[in-house]
Records
---
Amino acid sequence: MRTIVKLSGIIAVSIALTAGLAGCGILSRDKPETDAEILMGQNGQTLWESGLQYVKIVNRDLAGTANDHPAAISSDELRTVLGALYVNERTGFTTSENPLFSASELQILSAALSSGLNQAKQNEDVNFVTIGSFKGLIAQERKTNSGRVFMSGGRLNIVFGLIHEIYRDKDLATGQDIDRRVNPLLPGSRKSEANLATRVSLDSGQSFYLDPKTGKERSDWLVIDIATVLAKVKERKTGDDGTVSPELLQDVARSKQETGNLRQDVGNMKEILFDMSGEIDRLKQEIEALKATKR
């Protein structure tokens, strides 16, 4: 009898595994805190800290032009600016633009970075390490973002150390706990470019830093014109007359297209699984034939 692997069965197993992991606490809930809760534990240069995650005011890593600090940027403005950052990622059969920061990261960073930039001196930066929960191919995945933040030339600068780096507690090869004293989660540095597997997808008001020494762009160093980004986000939400803007309609159309692509990918998966079941049947028949010849 022909064996057919059903896609619905695979999906059901995936859902069950996800629910089980969440119930065991392995997949933590990505729940935003309030601004007051974030800053309540503020202690000196440490603006927020939770396990390996933190937002801290630190001395700048390289001497040079003084930072434009202290800088008055509201948490709402930072939430909008950081929420406008996206990365290109491939999941399964499709490549899509995904938010750089999760909802929880946005809540924490907008409050803590706003406070930090308002307190920092001209020779200080604000470093951060955060771990967000993002949708994966089967289940939620924890990904790490880290960076060095400062204002310079009237623009917000973020030098990334990590972008959507999969966070793991154990080494995949050895199964041993990863010693973060030896393998720390580091922010970016002015001194050298980080080797990032994922990079920010640039939009209006966003650009990569042009290194004057090499004449090349650094994809780990993002320079943001805050006013331009805020204006673009507002424009995309509504037109000048309060109607839905063409850009927003394009975003909706793009989302529909991505949904269509996903449906097509699922259809392709069904065909692949069907072909696999046929191949398995063929191999079974060959094995039975070989057994019969040996009798």
---
Amino acid sequence: MPLFRVLGLVAPLLTLTAGHEITYESQDPIGPSFSSVNTTSLLDTIRTRGYIRVGTTGDYKPFTYQLDNATTLPDGTTFNTTYIGADVDMAQSLSNALSLPSSPIFVPSAWANLTMDIAANKFDIAMGGVSITLARAQTSFFSTPVQRVGKTGCIRCADKGKYTDLKSLDVVSTKIAANPGGTNEAFDRATFTKAQVVIVEDNNAVYQAVIDGTADAMVSDKIEVELQVNLNNGTLCMVNEVPWTFEELGYLLPRDDVLKIFVDTWWRIQEGSGAWNATLEKWMGYKWPVV
């Protein structure tokens, strides 16, 4: 009788005994090839530890923003954490869903280092407007996408007649500001063959470079451009209403199936209940510091 292996399990043989009773005989001497019963996951480690470590860049409003001693919030609010933003709130929500006794610990990272840092076990999850890319997906997992975005141009409103599309931006005299190591810089270098790409090390100051004339334009995710246009109404304007690319944001995870399943399940509840939309709306309307 042939044996059939399905998803790593061997179908048992049926044996007809003398009393015409059917018995089952396992033909796999080493047992099933996969079992979730004794699988150890980072999820278990997090629960035992009592807190979750969240990697974040702290420079992508409305998702993550790092405060410092020199920062004065317009509404005078005092925060117990050094980070604020939509994904900072979501990190606390994830912590609550895990019933962790301590608040999340936020670990500083940089866009170019996210996958290396998570592979080095510096944090359990990266949150804060992380673009889902094939390059990152080669070494890490992503959660279910949390936000659809796409590259959009931001310019001074005084230049609206001058810059109307990618072609008009891509001229020798144009300077495009970009933060280093992320998808914005990658897009700029792949798209602009004539315009000069100017790297601004501090992503919080990259739009200021456009305002003060150090650069002529900035290309980023539409949601960030929309926020900056609202914060700098009449000074900064959007080039294109329809994004030039298709991109999605998600949460970066280590290669751990159990943790990913939990995060995806938690996220579906946040999305379906309206909690995510309410959180994002709150921070899109927030009176952020200018830089």
